[in-house]
Each structure stands twice: as structure tokens, then as C-alpha cells.
Amino acid sequence: MESGSGSEHIEGVSGNEQENEQQPKKKRYHRHTIRQIQEMESLFKECPHQDDKQRMKLSQVKFWFQNRLTQMKAQQDRADNAILRAEIEGLKNENYRLQAALRSVICPNCGGPAMLGEIAFDEQQLRIENARLKEELDRVCCIATRYSGRPVQAIGPPPPLLAPSLDLDMNIYGRNFPEPMPTCHDIISVQLLEEVKSMALQFAKSAVDELVKMSQLGEPLWIQNSENGKEALNVEEYGRMFPWPLNLKQHPSEFKTEATRDSAVVIMNSINLVDAFLDSTKWMELFPSIISRAKTVHVFTSGVSGHAKSSLRVMYAELQVLSPLIPTRETHFLRYCQQNVDEGTWAIVDFPIDRYQDILQSSVPRYRRSPSGCIIQDMPNGYSRVTWVEHADIEDKPVHQIFNNFVNSGMAFGAPRWLAVLQRQCERVASLMAGNISDLGVIPSSEARKNLMNLAQRMIRTFSVNISTSSGQSWTALSESSDDTVRITTRKITELGQPNGVILSAVSTTWLPYPHYLVFDLLRDERRRSQLDVLSNGNSLHEVAHIANGSHPGNCISLLRVNASVSGLEFEFPSRMVASNPSQNVELILQESCTDQSGSLVVYTTIDVDAIQLAMSGEDPSCIPLLPMGFSIVPVTPTADENPIPSSGDENNSSASCLLTVGLQVLASTIPTAKLNLSSVTAISNHLCNTVHQINAALSNSSSSICPDNSSSIMLGGSSTEPPPAAAATAPPKQ
């Protein structure tokens, strides 16, 4: 038997005591001397685990060594347990502290509980683990693609058994705008292009030569249509004239070719144009309604002193049309810039490399830019002549019938649209940079004017992105009918620049039997638009500030006051345009209207007086929340001799028609985790229907002499069909 202290030895019991077990005998203990214990402790420290030979030598004190080893293990266990208990206690305290912090977090923007405070701990852990697994899967796909030589895509989620309902949690429609983390595309682009840099430089020279010939040659490369005057690319002649390089392959049969070209004079010199095309941010600002996202992935050569005599880089772009019915087009491409000093021209050409393109292509429909771009010719007085060629292979996927002709004719993504927007935006930039404007009206300074224009530019860009399929935005149809064009979506906004919370958006496209400039004139004029109760709520509108930003009178920025009384208005800042009665609630509307050959835009948003004061005082207006609404109007099949932007009095073309896209947005809830109420969907859908109905009625009353028989053929409530034949009349659909 072992002693309780572990430092004593129990001596054996005599034979007589073993024979008489019923009589209890007192146990005798023998205590070791201090010197013996010290020697055994020293030996134990040297060798706590003895072998058989050592145990034979220490047989008389073997129990002491056993007890000492047991004691050492018990002490170690107690020490480990104490450490673990301390760690557990610390983790519990940290858990309690974090849970209390999550419950007390307040959103700095809306004052409500923060989004993380509503998420269960287990759910948050699952989301973190899910993000980690997705990142790991993406990395494995990159490695597999790299070494297999063919694209390997991650397996997408299985399709839901039922279509997502609009009254479910908003998380299924969430979309974030911040820059995403580097993906497989970014990693492979740099690795591949470093390997094929010399090949890319060789192709760049060939691409420039092709662009120059495509912009200058006529028949048989380009064949003109005698009916509408438009040019079409002769694909067979193109194949003979520009043989494919060895590493490039012809597009497969499921692709179709889109090719257009156009030329115009713009009010910007070649140096600034080249600088804008080589800077992805400036490029997006120059085409806010066409480019939803763009970035420079890799730069091979950047030229000398920032202005490239020859520059090569790989870029990414997502191109959009202002409607959720047309999918965006995503593409990676090589952009090469070359200056021809002798001719005074710049060539900017985009071209692909198939080995690179096949790996990076992931969007639907698949999109591949053939050598495309522009030739910029310097002209006097800071002007430039730009000849644009747009050539691409696009996967032949069906488009909604209302936009079928618009897309297939090349008007959606073709050179005329690019060039028309460029021409208008160059006028806007010239107006923005003008410093010799003497009559600013109620705007206090040139800096305030510039801030107001920048605010309107952000409003246009936000509206364009929010009503398209940019960034994978998903839209829900309210009807199973193929004619229905109403689409609904929601977004959870937490960043600056837009109201925080759940945003409900609704978009509808309708064919109208009126020229697009007539519809534009109606919607941009605040005096005529106030007659539409659904848009003005029966209130009158008064323009208190006006900024012209183009040669066309419709290209302007307006600051409108709702229920403004001219007699009670102070036309001077910083009096804030308040009425004579200080208690009156002042409501302002910021509006920008613009029109060109490709179509028209009218975008507006309500804005409070404090926000206007902030912009007028020279402060950064990027923090002002904007929730824009508006209209996009595109012409349908214009004739060759039609004036692109006729004046309002030119009403001699009764056969012209247009597509009107109405985009509405409302703040459904200030709580990002709120669920959508079905009544909100019904209300915004009815509002869309009433808007189209009143616009059609107003147009019918004001232009009955133009199209007296066609006004009844409009499809209300978001339904649409192809324009009716001239010889047949169509009855209005049932509501």
C-alpha cells in the first residue's frame, strides 16, 4: 500500500498478523531520512523512468519511485487543468463581451440596429466558412486551369426548386458594390500575358493595321444597304482580307458577328482623349451609360511621360444597355495605343488572344472583341475627328422580343452609340471645365457649379447601373407572359452615396408610336411634366437653377423646386432658396436630361436643401445619398435621311417610334435585414402602369396630328409587342 504523502514506505506485515486477519493490527511506517530522500530525488530527476536493471538495484525503495512518479503526473495534470480552466473562462468572457457588443451596435447611417446584430452566431460562422471554401475552390480551379490548358470552372449552385418569392428575405437579392477580391481571372491574366507579351506586341501591330483598313475601306469590305443606308460588314471578304494569326481561331458556329462603324467630330483634343481611353476610371466617366465596370488588369508598356506613343495593356469591361431585359457583356481584352506623328493621328485598338480569352470568359452570353477601336485625328481649336469601328463576336442567344431589333441592328452596342455618347460627353466635359461663365444665376461660384455637375454625373451613373443587369444583378418577372417587361429587384445598400437600407427597384419597357425626341421633350420640360399627376403628385415644378452642358438645349442640368412660388422665392445663395414662410417645407429635385443620336435620358432625384448647400459650399458631394429615377428613350429603326435630333417643331416623320424604359426606385425599409412587403411590389407595379398610361395620353393629346391612329397601339402596364404593321391596327390590350 502506498502512503498518502507519497514520501513514505509501508513496511511489510509479519506472518502472524497475516494468519489472524480479523484482529486489526496497527500499521508501522518507516520514514526515510532527509539524506536518503535527497539522494532518491536526485536519482529521480536524472532518470524518472528506470529500466529493469535499475529497478532490481532499487528494489528496496521501488515503491518510493512509483509514488514519486504518480505524484509528478498528478501535479502536471492539475497544472494543465488550471491552465485550461483559465482559458475557458477567458473565452467565455470574450464571448459574452462580443455578444453584448453585437446587441448594442447601432448603424451610424440610419440609427437602427446594425446588420450583424441580427445574424445568429452560428449563421455568421457558416458564412465565413462558406467564403473560405469558395476562395479555396477558386484557387484550385485556377491551378487546374493553369496546368490543364483549358478552363475549369467551379460548380455552380443547384437551381432552386421554386422561383424565389419577392416576399422572402432580402438576402437573396443582395448585391455589394465594393471592389471584389482578386479572382482567378486576375491571377491568370498576369501570368498568361507575361508569357505571351512578345506575341501580344506582334498582334498589336496587325490589329492597328486592320483597324485602319476597317475605318477607311468601302466596298467590297463594307456593303451599303440601299433601303436604310446602313453599312454591313462582308464577312467573307473580311476573312480573305484579314487572315487569322496562327494562335487565333475562327469563332464557332454558335457565335454571330456584329460590326458597325461611324465618324464624328468631338470637342476634345487627341491627348485628352487618349488619356481617357488608357485610364479605366476616366473611360467609365466618359461612357457612364455604356460602361458599368472597367479596370486595368495589367500594363505592359505605358509610354513616355504618361502620354503613350505606344502603350499596351490588358483591360476588363462590362458593357450595358439601360434595361434588365438585355444581359451585360463582359470581356477581357488587350488595348494598344499607337501614335502616327506623320499623319497626326492616334490609333486605339482592342483585340483578343484566344488562349487568354478562353480561360477568362465566364459571362453569359460569351463575348469576344475582334480588333475594334477608334482613329483620332487632330483638328484646329481643340477638336478631334474620331472614326469608330466596333467589331465583336457574340454568342447567339435570344433577346427579349421588344429589344430584338434594337440589339440585332447594332444600335445597342454598336459604333454609332459609342460615338454619339462620346460626342455628347465631350461637350459636357467642356462645359464642366469652362471657367469664363459670367452668368451663374443662383449658383454662387464656378466651384459650386462644378460640384453640382459632378453630383448629376454620379446620379446618371447610379441610375444606369441600377436598372441594368450589371454586377450580376438578378431581376424577377411578375408575370409568366413572354410579353411582360416589368422586372423587380431589391438591393441592400450600406455604403455611402445611396440611402442605406432595402431599395426596391422596378423597370418596365414599352413601345411608343412616337419619335424619341417628342417623348424626351415631354419628360424633360418641368412645366409639361407637372401635368402628369403620377410624376408630380399634382404639384407644380419651378426651375431655380440651370446649367447648359451641350449644344442641344435638352442637354442640361436643372434644379427644380416642388410647389415653388415665384413671388415667395429668394434667388440668392446662401439664402437656400427658402420661401417667404420659413416654416414651409422645401423640397428640391435635381434633374439631368441629355439626348443624342442613340437616344435620350431624363434622370432625376429628390434632394434636400442641406445637401444642396453642402454641394454649393464647395464640400465633397460624394457623401450625398441619391436615389435616382428616370427614363431611357431609344429610337426604333430610324431611316437614313432622318434628322437624328430634330427640333420639337419638326414633326414630319410620323413613322418613327421609340422604346421607353421607365426606372423607379423606392426605399422600402431603412433596416437592411427587413423583408419585402408584397404590397410594396403591387404599389410600384401599379405606379409603372399609371406612368406609362399618362405619358401616352399626354403624347396623344399633344401630337394627334402626327400619329392619330397609332396611339391606341401602346402596350400598357409593361406589356409590349413588336411595332404593328402599317396596314393593320391593333387593339389596346386588357389591363
Structural Rg: 37 Å
Number of alpha- plus pi-helical segments: 19
> Which shape, going by the Cα principal axes?
elongated
Measured by DSSP, the beta-strand proportion falls in 15-25%
Describe the structure.
- Helices cover 34% and strands 22% of the residues.
- The protein is α+β, with helices and mostly antiparallel strands and 735 residues long.
- The strands form four sheets. Strands 13-14-15-21-20-19-18-17-16 form a nine-stranded antiparallel beta sheet, sandwiched between helices. Strands 5, 6, 7, 8, 9, 10, 11 and 12 form an eight-stranded antiparallel beta sheet that branches.
- It is elongated, with a radius of gyration of 37 Å.
- β8 (329-340) and β9 (345-351) form a beta hairpin.
- α5 (121-148) packs parallel to α6 and α9 packs across α10.
Provide a compact summary of the structure:
With 735 residues, this protein is of the alpha+beta class.
List keywords for this structure.
735 residues, disordered C terminus, alpha+beta, elongated, disordered N terminus
Helix-strand blueprint:
Elements: E1 9-10, H1 15-19, E2 29-30, H2 34-46, H3 52-57, H4 62-104, H5 121-148, H6 184-195, H7 197-216, E3 222-224, E4 231-233, H8 235-241, E5 255-266, H9 270-278, H10 280-286, E6 291-301, E7 310-319, E8 329-340, E9 345-351, H11 354-360, E10 367-369, E11 372-378, E12 384-395, H12 404-408, H13 415-433, H14 446-466, E13 476-477, E14 487-493, E15 501-512, H15 516-524, H16 526-529, H17 533-536, E16 541-548, E17 556-562, E18 588-596, E19 599-607, H18 609-616, E20 629-636, E21 657-669, H19 678-702
Antiparallel strand pairs: 1-2, 3-4, 5-12, 6-7, 7-8, 8-9, 9-11, 10-12, 11-12, 13-14, 14-15, 15-21, 16-17, 17-18, 18-19, 19-20, 20-21
Helix pairs in contact: 5-6, 9-10
